[in-house]
Design goal:
There is one protein chain. With 319 residues, this protein is α+β, with helices and mostly antiparallel strands. The chain folds into two domains: 99 residues, no CATH class; 156 residues, Nucleoside Triphosphate Pyrophosphohydrolase. Strands 8, 9, 10, 11, 12, 13, 14 and 15 form an eight-stranded mixed β-sheet that branches. Strand 1 and strand 2 form a beta hairpin.
Length: 319
């Protein structure tokens, strides 16, 4: 039997083309421009390239000096990444914010000695219908030496945490949460914290909401003190926990109030969190003077440092 006869007798082996309306590559070839939102007075335009069977690609042009079009940058999907996830990634606020940071006044592309050549989008994690995390690798070159600088990015965006100080009797207590943290394989005592769920930048509102979800305590936004706002403007007024691999930027707040001993007792060991989101949280209340030694949570230690320095320099509200 010849090969031709075998193929004729086995139609399932033939490659039957999909109808045009069902072909994902042809659907992808239609332009889906990035949002027109501005990037700190800079904008970038996009031009869709023709995708191939092995890759999905988009080209962006970052503005050069004087508003001129800069060098084109290829955005490429890693093998196995669907065109839907690729589109979601490059249209996400996380990716746009990263591009914004690269081009801002203190951004690494602003000084003229670094060039962004290519971005490989490797994965997307969804939180329901919205993007939670984007993983990509940016090829950034030091122009003078031609060397590539480390550019693996785990993008999760802005987050907030709150240092809650409760005066009871002659003691000051701090409200912490005990949570399962799989990446480090441990239970961690940490500040009530959470990611910003939307793009409207409601940092204080998010902080208040996270405190209520994780501890049951209802705070007033007017009572919140932004500790990171005391940092120099050049820092962006944020804390970066792990800038070598993650773009997370933290706003740290402080709340101070007085409560009865019964409130402290009621909070201790309280089980909270959004169970349907996998949050298994227990509230822990500890004396403030012992706080810095009983947890390795970066949010706690950063908040304590900012609080103590702001108190030393007389920057905290008098009330």
């Amino acid at each position: 039997m010849t090969i031709l006869t075998m193929l004729l007798n086995a139609p399932s082996l033939l490659r039957i083309p999909l109808p045009l309306h069902q072909n994902p590559l042809l659907r992808f070839s239609k332009n889906f421009p990035l949002s027109s939102s501005k990037l700190l007075h800079r904008r970038f335009c996009t031009k869709m390239t023709t995708p191939t069977a092995t890759s999905l690609t988009q080209t962006i042009h970052l503005n050069g000096k004087g508003g001129e079009t800069g060098t084109p940058v290829e955005i490429i999907a890693a093998p196995g990444l669907s065109h839907h996830d690729f589109r979601m990634a490059i249209e996400s606020s996380l990716f746009k914010k990263w591009l914004e940071n690269m081009q801002c006044e203190t951004g690494i592309l602003t000084y003229g000695d670094m060039s962004l050549k290519r971005v490989l989008v490797q994965g997307v994690d969804m939180f329901g219908k919205r993007i939670g995390f984007v993983k990509f690798r940016a090829d950034v070159i030091h122009d003078e030496t031609g060397n590539q600088v480390p550019g693996i990015v785990f993008s999760r965006g802005p987050a907030v945490a709150v240092l809650i100080l409760l005066n009871s009797g002659n003691e000051t207590y701090v409200v912490l949460t005990e949570q399962v943290r799989v990446p480090v394989g441990r239970l961690i005592l940490e500040l009530p914290a959470g990611m910003l769920d939307d793009d409207n930048g409601d940092v204080i509102g998010t902080a208040v909401r996270e405190v209520e979800e994780e501890t049951g305590i209802k705070l007033k936004m007017s009572d919140m003190v932004n500790l990171t706002a005391f940092l120099e403007p050049a820092t962006g007024g944020k804390v970066f926990p792990s800038p070598g691999g993650c773009d997370e930027e933290l706003s740290l707040f402080m709340y101070k109030g007085g409560v009865d001993k019964e409130v402290i007792a009621a909070l201790q060991g309280k089980e909270t969190g959004l169970r349907d989101h996998g949050e298994l949280i227990k509230v822990r209340v500890v004396p403030y003077d012992k706080l810095w030694r009983i947890t390795a949570d970066m949010k706690v230690l950063s908040a304590v440092a900012l609080y103590e320095m702001a108190k030393r320099d007389g920057l905290l509200p008098s009330k």
